[in-house]
């Protein structure tokens, strides 16, 4: 069942989203060659706590860190550790902040120093694909309309659309109904109504769409070793469109 949020719940989610967006904006300024992913994780946790929220990922189904940090061919759910970022890497930062029981979920892909043109292309068009998906949102739209818009844009730009991982509803739980795939057909899937909140998050690959899970039980990487990018916003469905709750 897809819940419709009350005005009070929406205000709390706006605050959670604001904290999430501010944290990612701050972390992006700290991404540089030589910093470890564990150092970025500590910066994220400290920032979120300072804002009066908590990092929801920490301990979620056993995840050991405050933020998912995935580098290059790692698609999502990378575990922070001693790895040092290098010039030319791209790094995905995926954060969920819990404010008074409500969640804000967002992700960005950030270049480490100077990156090559292929990685620039991947980042640019993954972010644009997110906004293509968001443009399909309004009261009465179908979830499939979002996935169709993302898939169409991605495939027009020769990017692989990961299918095993999807966006989702969000509220008091990180993952609520409905699933929001990054592929699909128009006028299919659940109907979205004003007051619903979802997280839309295209994960696009420079090569094949196929991915697999590493032995750590969390990190998902591309099957061909080519880079992947990830962007995500938590959005409120409105009568005429949508409101981004995790603006940066």
UniProtKB/TrEMBL annotation:
A divalent metal cation 1 binds at residues 94, 105, 232. The keyword Metal-binding applies. One of its GO terms (biological process) is proteolysis. Keywords: Aminopeptidase, Hydrolase, Metal-binding, Protease. It is an enzyme of class 3 (hydrolase). GO terms for cellular component: cytosol. It comes from the Bacteria. Substrate binds at residues 77, 175. One of its GO terms (molecular function) is metal ion binding. PANTHER family: METHIONINE AMINOPEPTIDASE (PTHR43330). Monomer. This is Methionine aminopeptidase.
